[in-house]
Predict the structure.
Amino acid sequence: MDMFVIRGGTPLAGTVTINGAKNAALPIMAAALASSGPSVLQDVPDLVDVRTLCKLLSELGMNVNRDASGDLRLEVVDDRPHAADYELVRTMRASVCVLGPLLARRGRACISLPGGCNIGDRPIDLHLKGLAALGADIRVERGYVIAEAGRLRGARIYLGGPFGSTVTGTCNIMVAAALARGKTTIESAACEPEVVDLGNYLNNMGARISGLGTPFLEIDGVEELTGTTHRIVPDRIEAATLMIAAAVTNGDVELKNVRSQHLTAVLEKLSEIGVKIANVGENRLRITTSGELRAADCIALPYPGIPTDVQAQLMSLLACTPGISVITDKVFPDRFMHAAELARMGAMIRREGPSAIINGAGQLSGAAVMASDLRASAALVIAGLSAQGDSAIRRIYHLDRGYERLERKLRQLGAHIERVEDRADTFPHSLRLDQPQTAAELTGPHWSHPIANTTSQKRSA
Ligand code: UD1
């Protein structure tokens, strides 16, 4: 297992290019199952999740190849398989995106139920409700969802749930409805740019979907979807992660291939915190800071709000920003595993239901921490980049699911970050308790504030 060893304190500087979005690439790759011609996908990031889905799609009868230019070529060569096994689905929840395409094209899908995960309960009841409304017969047996249907038929479907709409649920229903007989209306559809990207891909293959980017979708079913060539939309979460990394280190970073119109809420919040963001060309942003950053309150909401996938990274930034900040997650209200790890670096964070109250420490101190999920890993990397001294970020296999070699991009920007195998002899000397250290080195931020939190203990100097 790999870990990152980071020496914090270097301001990031330079230019990096943002990849295509994981959350667009995965449902689009899955949707290729519903087409009858070959597709070529450009800017598909080379991630563990993408490789996992390639494996699943191969098992489902697809020819999947990445050519020398990096384009991903997908074509159905056998339309008989219809099952997605637990072993694959448990490693990647987005496998559920094959449900709608399989059902629509092959009339049957058998998909392992994904179960919960480290960011909270993640039911798929809305996916199933939508597919049932389209005429599918659905049952759950031995941990698998089994969905069967003849030709699906259009319906009026409401996709709102207790935490808003569902992103992958909207993707599943949209693909299924694209091949259904008649018209489907989806109300409370997810509006995320990745859903729009999938809709554009489907329309390029002959689907008739209107209202993309709004909560009301109208879909006129067609008989067949052909293949097409499609470029994946840039990853707004990777862009936000690198912006926050630049800000937390007082850096000067230019991002290429970033769509600022997909990041309005994040850009506004970063500006409020004191981060300077300038448009420096088409799809190019420059991130700098000048002087002190300010505490702020953030609420993660469905798009166009601040994404829940940026909540953890913002927490790292605010943990280093003097003052009291409050972060609330309305999409995944239990998504706070990173708070306890940040506390190991001296962050003062108290959890209150779906919120975290952060008493910004000014500067964190390096520590060994454990990544619990994809975006929590990114948050710990950000904290490590800004902290005083060395940090060891363990279990970064979570990070590799969603960032393509993040350490290379960060090194390109001057960060001191190494990927090493997690072994006793690679663990940073400076983090070993048996190493002689001065009292000053052992003194992290002081726990003097009244909100000093419940997840950490006072440390002695
Ligand atoms: C997608 C993203 C993920 C992001 C999330 C929220 C992909 C591959 N993943 O996940 O990175 O964090 O959107 O923006 O695109 N819910 C229900 N019933 C359902 C489905 C969801 O109650 O049937 C709830 C969930 O528990 C959650 C909220 O709705 O509280 C949003 O979940 P959803 O949009 O479905 O997330 P994913 O599509 O799994």
About this structure: The mean pLDDT is 92. Residues 22-231 form a domain with the UDP-n-acetylglucosamine1-carboxyvinyl-transferase; Chain fold (CATH 3.65.10.10).
